[in-house]
Amino acid sequence: MLLQHSLLSDTRKFFENLSGAGKSIAVLTSGGDAQGMNAAVRAVVRMGIYVGAKVYFIHEGYQGMVDGGDNIKEATWESVSSMLQVGGTVIGSARCKEFRSHEGRLKAAHNLVQRSITNLCVIGGDGSLTGANLFREEWSGLLDELVQQGLIDKEAACSNSELHIVGMVGSIDNDFCGTDMTIGTDSALHRIIEVVDAIMTTAQRYLALVSALACGADWVFIPEMPPEDGWEDSMCQKLSESRSRGSRLNIIIVAEGAIDRKGLPITSDFVKDLVVRCLGFDTRVTILGHVQRGGTPSAFDRILASRMGVEAVLALLEASATTPACVVSLVGNQAVRLPLMECVQMTQEVQKAMDEKKFEEAVRLRGRSFENNLTTYRLLSYRNADSELPNSSFNVAVLNVGAPAAGMNAAVRSAVRVGITEGHKMFAVSDGFEGFYKGHIKEIKWGDVGGWTGQGGSLLGTKRTLPGKHLEKIAEQIKIHNINALLVIGGFEAYVGLLELSAARDKYNEFCVPMVMVPATVSNNIPGSDLSIGSDTALNAITDTCDRIKQSASGTKRRVFIIETMGGYCGYLATVGGLAAGADTVYIYEEPFDIRDLQANVEHLTQKMKTSIQRGIVLRNENSNENFTTDFIYQLYTEEGRGVFDCRKNILGHMQQGGAPSPFDRNFGTKIAAKAIQWITRTLKESYKGGKTLFANSEDTACLLGMRRRALVFQPVSQLRDETDFVHRIPKEQWWLKLRPLMKILAKYKTSYDVSDSGQLEHVTRVRPKETNTSAAI
Known about the structure:
Layout: E1 24-29, H1 37-50, E2 54-58, H2 61-67, E3 72-74, H3 102-114, E4 119-124, H4 126-148, H5 154-159, E5 164-169, H6 185-196, E6 201-203, H7 205-215, E7 219-221, H8 231-244, E8 252-255, H9 268-279, H10 299-318, E9 326-331, E10 334-339, H11 340-355, H12 359-366, H13 368-380, E11 395-401, H14 408-421, E12 425-429, H15 432-438, E13 441-443, E14 462-463, H16 471-480, E15 485-490, H17 492-503, E16 515-519, H18 535-552, E17 559-565, H19 572-581, E18 585-587, H20 595-609, E19 615-621, H21 630-640, E20 646-651, H22 663-687, E21 688-689, E22 693-694, E23 702-708, E24 711-716, H23 717-720, E25 724-725, E26 730-731, H24 739-746, E27 775-777
Parallel strand pairs: 1-2, 1-4, 4-5, 5-9, 6-8, 7-8, 11-12, 11-14, 11-15, 15-16, 16-23, 17-19, 17-20, 18-19
Antiparallel strand pairs: 2-3, 9-10, 12-13, 21-22, 23-24, 24-27, 25-26
Helix pairs in contact: 1-10, 2-3, 3-4, 4-11, 6-7, 7-13, 7-22, 10-19, 11-12, 12-13, 13-22, 14-22, 15-16, 18-19, 19-24, 20-21
């Protein structure tokens, strides 16, 4: 469980104690390019310079390291400005045969020693990282050879005796063991989903699986899960049943390398011919190919890459001769460091298991994120006839409460279909608690939620009405419809509503049923969860808008934009959006500021704009300060920046709530709602006394399912009460506040950065502990 600020101040470790003075760090990108690599390069450069190290670009990957010369250049603060939103890698990436030879690595070592570079940050796939590890293992021998050849002296060999390596995985395939998401994967999913929302597609194996979840595909072929023999008939039957329920479009996703149980390839053309021959459906094939690598990086990839870039520099500063080369990665929502070769060996074992047709083993080795995606996909792809489904005789109601959030519909679809698969009769409540007490309740079936995954807003309808004043009528409706469990998907009102219902159990027996809430709000202000459905889509809206706003001033004189975001009193959107957009300053309620801070910020930005920096972004959360309004800050910056820059003002407003949900929100909503229904099933069985009456009134039968660091955790809402600031509708402690110093460092501010929560070296686990009833891996 995450307790954000539980460490006492005297036990905190600040990176001011980790000096980079006298050290040189080089950063390179290698292998296939991936969106977000530039954000990682930017973070490494700025964090390196911040701690006093010299930082070098190595252009064109290992080829540039071997060739030396102008390929290895010292980086400056300004040299990485305006690259955050650029796709691919601006420092270049090339595959290098020469580095695979001993002579090539000897040349590379000579080029590094000439510049006293003994710290390497490598951004690439498993091949690139394996090469870096071999380079490190050979380092002392390479230096000895260079001394013997008279290319360096013994003093240079002695002062550069240790080579430290930290890797970041940049790969759209997300096929590297040990990390939940690699840099570039989320952006590639954005490209795929943009197309898959309308047409069929081909993609990489991880991308295929997650995009199948995110778009509600009818069938997916991936190498790790070859279909059972006779799949041709099963697939055609499922497609035919889908059409008979009124669906006019079927989506089949075929991953690169998909095979059947005999190891024979399954291609998109083969599938197309099969559908046309057996069903006569008009069928089209689209192969995305390199489109998946294109476009600007998503907000998730920018934040991931920025966090990992800073983490990589910290890992290099802390490295010693005995520290193994490591990979920095993200597991759940937490930064971790893993031994590079353990990850590589596990990744290679996946391929070995595939070659030996040990498909279940391959899935297990791929890691819990892949495994859970696959489990959820299987749950949602129940292909047996209705008559073969179990019958639980339980009725489960689903409702949306609060403001609309993108991804709510994906969560409802998942809940309905998993509930039906578990044997429950599912009921939809329209318009939240208001619709509940008015009796707007009807059964919802499998086909009713077809095509919901990619829809924005709330198709069920949602309102902010709380149940407190309507308890008697809601109890009456529960009795009329014989509702045995509740799933509430929504924001702060959903949380307060669940508190009110559980508190009324003493008075109304009807509320003595299992209740669970899944957080869905763009503000991400729910206690008990690091993330909410909808907040990623809102972050992408903010980031895309900031990119466009900056681009609108292209070719003009220096300009600063003051941009207001939503979020109520919660500064999550402003802060994390600021990190993704490369903001210079972000004003939020949780970090009070006065006129002296505003003045210092203006002066700081003015100094930056006197260099080669052309654009400035200042974000302000809508409720950050009642007196220092967006207009006030705009006028202040306009006046104080006169002669150096001019200002423009934008209020983003409700566009942050609109649009189709991002791949992350679709996937998160799908998986978390499936977990919630499985919890309901377990709790119903446990609460059904003697097979006669259902009675659930203990505090652990009214829960919030939230993401905490590495796991999805069920927490009694009554226990979250003390963690809540009800006046300002925010949690008392919020994990993302630790990202603010990182954001300030990347904007050239001097600040304290608490690294006590940074990644510690761990080992890649092969056997994971079994999930408990209260927590589940993501």
